[in-house]
Structure formats: structure tokens, C-alpha cells
């Protein structure tokens, strides 16, 4: 198909990843290598980027791959057929009077909005994690400065909070259940909010 070839000629895999996904390409070395998959949470990169053949493949839970067209389709939850039409439109390529249906347009906008919301949540989770790390360090310093049993009893609530903060941080790093992961995020965010207020009052 001529339009498919035009898309591939005008869009390389790196540009597609940067433009249409949240992929972090900073650790990609050479013309072929693995990065963290932009489509699922992982700690070890299972997402192969091949700039020679302009292809991608996730060897993790996605277990799929392809070219720039399938990348765009998978990223937005649409068919390859609709991916071709949308990419051609985005790249300013001429299409032979092929129009997207109203339903496809509505579905695409909905999925794009959901994806943007998820991206915002992921960024907020990272921010919350870093803020809780800082607060836990403050807790540790307060505990370490305590000299005797009487003082330890007075700050028992801080000791409890420090233990729970450590637990939440561990969950955010190691939870494989999405439900537990989001639950830990919500509780970590609440702890950060409470402690930021406490520290602000103390200053």
C-alpha cells in the first residue's frame, strides 16, 4: 500500500516513540537496544527499539511489536487501519478520500484523554515517591537524635510513621498488583500532605 510506505518513509521509530508515547529514550545506546516499556510498569527494560529496521517489540507483558503504524495503533488502542488514516493526517500525507467515522474520532479522543490522565498520575506518583523519601529521612533524623527511652516513647508516633512510610515506598517500587500500587500511592500522598502540614507548622 502506497500510503503505508509514505508513512514509514516520513516517520522513523524514534520520532514516533518521542511524539506518540511516553518512552524514555535517554538510556538507548546504539542503533538497537532495550528501554523501559512505555505501555506497562516495569523495572527492567523489555522494550526493544530497532532503529535499523524501524521496528519495536515488547518482550514483557505486552508481548507484541511491529512498525510505526502498529506502535501508534497499540498506543491509542485503535486498529491498524485507523492508525494509517490518523498518521497520514498528522503527517500531512494525501489520502484518497478516506474519512474516519465519527465513532472512531470520538473513541480516539476519549482514549487520548484517558492516556493523558494516566501520564499525569504516573508523574504524580514519581513526585509523591520522592517527597515521601524526603519526609522519611526527616523522620529518621528525628528518631536518631533521640537519646533515651522516655524520649522514644514521646516520639512513638513518628517511629510508627517512619515504618509505614518505608512500607509504602517499598510498595510503590515492588507492587505488581495495580490495585495495591494505586492504593499505596493514595496513602503515600495523604502521608506527604499530613507531614508537609506538620513541618510547616513546626517551622
User: Would you list the SSEs in sequence order as H and E?
Assistant: HHEEEEHHHHHH
Q: Shape, please?
A: elongated
Q: Which CATH first-tier class of the largest domain would you pick?
A: Alpha Beta
Q: Any idea what the CATH architecture of the largest domain is? A: Alpha-Beta Complex
Average pLDDT for all residues:
84
The percentage helix is 55-70%
CATH topology of the largest domain, anyone? DNA Primase, Chain A
- Strand order across the largest sheet: 1-2-3-4
Give the termini distance in whole angstroms: 67 Å
Strand content: 5-15%
Number of strands: 4
Largest sheet: 4 strands, antiparallel
Low-confidence stretches: none
CATH superfamily of the largest domain: Zinc finger, CHC2-typedomain
Radius of gyration equals 23 Å
Count of the separate structural domains = 2
* Helix segment tally: 8
Keywords: Metal-binding, Zinc, Zinc-finger
Protein name: Zinc finger CHC2-family protein
Domain Zinc finger CHC2-type: 36-88
InterPro entries: DNA_primase_Znf_CHC2, DnaG_primase, Znf_CHC2
Amino acid at each position: 500500500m502506497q500510503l503505508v510506505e509514505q508513512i514509514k518513509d516520513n516517520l522513523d521509530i524514534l520520532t514516533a516513540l518521542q511524539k506518540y508515547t511516553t518512552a524514555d529514550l535517554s538510556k538507548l545506546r546504539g542503533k538497537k537496544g532495550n528501554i523501559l516499556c512505555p505501555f506497562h510498569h516495569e523495572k527492567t527494560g523489555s522494550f526493544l527499539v530497532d532503529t535499523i529496521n524501524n521496528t519495536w517489540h515488547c518482550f514483557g507483558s505486552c508481548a507484541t511489536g511491529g512498525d510505526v503504524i502498529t506502535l501508534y495503533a497499540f498506543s491509542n488502542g485503535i486498529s491498524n487501519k485507523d492508525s494509517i488514516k490518523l498518521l497520514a493526517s498528522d503527517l500531512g500525507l494525501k489520502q484518497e478520500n478516506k474519512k474516519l467515522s465519527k465513532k472512531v474520532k470520538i473513541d480516539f479522543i476519549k482514549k487520548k484523554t484517558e492516556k493523558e490522565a494516566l501520564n499525569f498520575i504516573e508523574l504524580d506518583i514519581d513526585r509523591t515517591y520522592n517527597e515521601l523519601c524526603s519526609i522519611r529521612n526527616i523522620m529518621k533524623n528525628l528518631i536518631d537524635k533521640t537519646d533515651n527511652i522516655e524520649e522514644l516513647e514521646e516520639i512513638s508516633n513518628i517511629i510508627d510513621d517512619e515504618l509505614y512510610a518505608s512500607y509504602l515506598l517499598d510498595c510503590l517500587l515492588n507492587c505488581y498488583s495495580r490495585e495495591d500500587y494505586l492504593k499505596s500511592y493514595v496513602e503515600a500522598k495523604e502521608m506527604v500532605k499530613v507531614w508537609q502540614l506538620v513541618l510547616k507548622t513546626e517551622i
